[in-house]
Write a structure and sequence with these properties.
The longest helix has 20 residues, at 174-193. Helix 2 packs antiparallel against helix 3 and helix 7 (111-122) runs antiparallel to helix 8. The protein has eleven helices and no strands. By secondary structure, the chain is mainly α. It has a domain at 77-203: Regulator of G-protein Signalling 4, domain 2 (Orthogonal Bundle), CATH 1.10.167. It is elongated. The two termini are 33 Å apart. It holds the Pfam family RGS. Keywords: Signal transduction inhibitor. Residues 86-202 form the RGS domain. It comes from Acrocephalus arundinaceus.
Length: 233
């Protein structure tokens, strides 16, 4: 796989300024070995999962700093109650995003929130030169077939996104992000609200370690068709 910076030399001016998020994703997908020794999708996911757990991956406000929830005990019950008002409210607050990320990790579905966060950061790109390398990194990490952190998208959305990667816009991932948002809102969010982790925050106690559970079945857009309008930012 060719490095986009080699194909577009003008992008080299920003190479040294890549943020930890995109450095982490790039390191997991660049320079594939010979097919005979190419790791399977499961190995890729395991490798990237270990990378995502490193402290340096979670640097920067643009990531919402998901991960360690040791400070969540400082969340007041009143604040936690507000997270139950809407999914938007939960994701709009750092502590809420932290708590929801930790919950998704117990269900082995954290790729959904990581993709959503990556899209939020992507849309904040200030120049066209930033879009191409970021778009390729997001696509290769979360969307293309057998991607290390592949999210569940319908064929039409995946195809439309794929066709726009060559000349990405700030809106390139809007449809895919909206799809993943709805899946989290309709599937994971209700379970989060009934989880021991959330109940402990409502009671003002330190969150207990949530037991790991098997990944729930993957829902598709058709499961929730007509339930809510598309999410827009």
């Amino acid at each position: 796989m060719e490095n986009p910076l080699l194909l577009f030399p003008q992008l080299n001016i920003s190479a040294s300024k890549d943020k930890p998020y995109y450095k982490a994703m790039k390191s997991a997908i660049k320079e594939e070995p010979h097919k005979a020794s190419k790791p399977g999708a499961k190995q890729k996911r395991n490798r990237l999962s270990l990378l995502l757990q490193k402290p340096e991956f979670h640097e920067g406000d643009h990531l919402g700093k998901p991960g360690n929830l040791t400070k969540a005990a400082s969340v007041s019950p009143e604040e936690a109650v507000k997270w139950g008002e809407s999914f938007d409210k939960l994701l709009s607050e750092k502590a809420g995003l932290d708590a929801f990320t930790k919950f998704l990790k117990t269900e082995f579905s954290e790729e959904n929130i990581e993709f959503w966060i990556a899209c939020e950061d992507y849309k904040k790109s200030k120049s066209a030169h930033e879009l191409l390398p970021k778009a390729k990194t997001i696509f290769e990490t979360f969307i293309q077939k057998d991607a290390p952190k592949e999210v569940n998208l319908d064929f039409h959305t995946k195809e439309a996104t794929s066709q726009s990667i060559g000349q990405p816009l700030h809106s390139t991932f809007d449809a895919a992000q909206s799809t993943v948002y709805r899946l989290m809102e309709q599937d994971s969010y209700p379970r989060f609200l009934s989880s021991a982790l959330y109940r402990s925050l409502l009671q003002g106690s330190a969150p207990a370690r949530a037991p790991l559970r098997r990944r729930s079945r993957s829902f598709t857009v058709s499961d929730f068709q007509g339930r809510r309008p598309d999410f827009t930012v």
